[in-house]
Amino acid sequence: MLEVKNLHKEFVNKIAVNDISFTVNKGEIFGLLGPNGAGKTTTIRMILNIILPDSGVVLFDGKPFTEETKNLVGYLPEERGLYQKNKLFDTITYFGSLKNLKISEIKNSANYWLKKFELAGNEGRKIEELSKGNQQKVQFIISVLHNPDMIILDEPFSGFDPVNQDLLKEILIELKNNGKTIIFSTHQMEQVEKLCDNICLINNGEIILSGKLTEIKKNYGNNSIIIEFSGDGSFIKDFKGIKHCNIFENYAEIIVNNDFSVKSFLDEVNKKIDIRKFQITEPSLHSIFIEKVGNASKVKEVIS
């Protein structure tokens, strides 16, 4: 459905996006990932024709972006902004009119989404009277009000508590099951693992990892160890053969080399801390993200 080919964009003394290419298929959830300043938002803006690339092309179903294409796409920008003094339903009506929706269409769609997001009954309240999370919901509703084929979401989970994050995940899955194509950018790797079919990880304006999420994790093998423990586990990072280690208060996720001796590791660790859980598994996307982004010298890796 979407083809991004060799996009390049430079600002004053900075290359924001450098030769980025990827494809998003109809009916999938695609994750565009990267640290702050990686070029994600610039890429999204070029996809939407908000800013023009210095070179490269963006194609929707094989055709360039047009005014007609705009009505096929829903967009939730990273920079949030609603008219605070306006009432909720008036705000939705205004944005619906920008998509050439009839009043009856706006009402039907708004009623569906307000109920979905547990906002029914708030239509007459001013935006400023809503919580930050509920304002987020309104902005999401605006992006999908016109029933777009493709939905592009820049940091959609920002500002949501865990309950509303789960609600949004359910809604995104429902949209996917209804044939919608979803692209979202986020720093929350846990959400990506639960939702995405394919990902593209960029850093410093360049792709460093892309492909099917299942194949990416498989490619990294079962070289990840998860430990839940009691005690001070800070010493774990000093073991020979550990490539990367995330240590928290009572939890550690460790990526090890292929020749790592698990038995020797367990024998030593058991002497210092009380292990409640030990598991060898695939590395989390969070660990892969940290490893790839933390080593800028690594070359681009594409997994199909």
- Rounded to the nearest angstrom, the radius of gyration is 22 Å
The tally of helices reads 10
Which structural class do you get from the secondary structure elements? alpha/beta
CATH class group of the largest domain = Alpha Beta
Order of helices and strands: EEEHEEHEHHHEHEHEEHEEEHEHE
Regarding quaternary structure, what we see is: single chain
CATH superfamily of the largest domain: P-loop containing nucleotide triphosphate hydrolases
The largest β sheet comes out as: 7 strands, mixed
How much of the sequence lies in strands comes to 25-35%
Number of domains: 2
Cα separation of the termini: 18 Å
- Give helix % range: 25-40%
What are the segments in which pLDDT stays under 50 over at least 5 consecutive residues? 296-304
Task: State mean pLDDT (0 to 100 scale).
Answer: 88
Describe what this molecule looks like in 3D.
The protein is an alpha/beta fold and 304 residues long. It has 2 domains: 210 residues, 3-Layer(aba) Sandwich (Rossmann fold), CATH 3.40.50.300; 80 residues, Alpha-Beta Plaits. The chain has 10 helices and 15 strands. The strands form 3 sheets. A 7-stranded mixed beta sheet has the order 6-7-8-3-9-10-15, with helices on both faces. Helix 3 crosses helix 4. It starts with a strand and ends with a strand. The C terminus is likely disordered.
